From TrEMBL:
One Pfam family, short name: DLH
Protein name: Prolyl oligopeptidase family serine peptidase
Molecular function GO labels: carboxylic ester hydrolase activity
Source organism of the structure: Enterovirga aerilata
Domain called Dienelactone hydrolase: residue spans: 91-196
Keywords: Hydrolase
InterPro entries documented for this protein: AB_hydrolase_fold (IPR029058), Dienelactn_hydro (IPR002925), FrsA_esterase (IPR050261)
SUPFAM superfamilies membership: alpha/beta-Hydrolases (SSF53474)
Length: 218
């Protein structure tokens, strides 16, 4: 377990170094931060670790950030979500700096992959941090703090279930409109019949899209 400091708090980060991939052993690799949803990593964290391991095996350094450490939570308290949201954005910004300084990481090829709340945080961070070169957003809401109407965002991939009852698919369509109007390179895929967590063929299709997107933009 690695860690960095944000707001005088120690933020744990699980590190998954890049596998061999197609690069040489001494070649710099792109770096990614994986941002979990509101349930945190104490609940269902193994699926994030599995995803991080698979992505790292394909040649990316991956940091799984325990950003809730900033507010001392294991799971998000919705009563204080709006109050804490800017703190988490600041923490992820600090995590980007930490990632850029890691040995073996190409600081010019950094990306964010966020799920649900983590997706919103990825967008908020990328809108104000030019070091982020790509964003993958799974099932996330449109952040309330995005500069309106044309935020400056890096290439963005949006993946969402049409039947999502937690974060309605209307958020993906609204984000698509924002990305189009701001001239941001983007892809949006909404999966019919899928809920908040993609499964089956949709899950595999999404993974394929993520791999292709990251290969193009990082």
């Amino acid at each position: 377990m690695d860690e960095f400091t944000s707001g005088a708090r120690r933020i744990r980060t699980e590190w998954f170094p890049a596998g061999a991939g197609e690069a040489g052993p001494d070649e710099l690799r792109p770096g990614l931060l994986l941002l979990h949803g509101a349930d945190g990593l104490a609940f269902g964290g193994d699926r994030y670790r599995l995803a991080a391991g698979l992505v790292s095996a394909s040649g990316y350094h991956v940091g799984l950030v325990h950003y809730l450490d900033r507010t001392g939570e294991r799971r998000v308290d919705y009563a204080t979500l709006r109050e804490n949201y800017p703190l988490w954005v600041a923490t992820i910004g600090d995590a980007v700096g930490w990632l850029a300084r890691r040995p073996g990481v190409d600081a010019g090829r950094l990306g964010l992959v966020g799920v649900s709340l983590g997706g919103a945080l990825a967008l908020s961070t990328a809108a104000s941090d030019g070091r982020v070169r790509a964003v993958v957003e799974y099932s996330g809401p449109v952040p309330e703090d995005l500069p309106d109407p044309r935020p400056k965002l890096p290439p963005t991939l949006v993946l969402h279930g049409e039947a999502d009852r937690i974060v309605p698919a209307s958020h993906a369509r609204r984000l698509q409109q924002i990305l189009r109007e701001s001239g941001t390179p983007h892809e949006v895929q909404v999966y019919p019949g899928q809920g908040h967590v993609l499964s089956g063929a949709a899950q595999f299709d999404a993974a394929s899209r993520v791999a292709s997107f990251l290969a193009r933009h990082l």
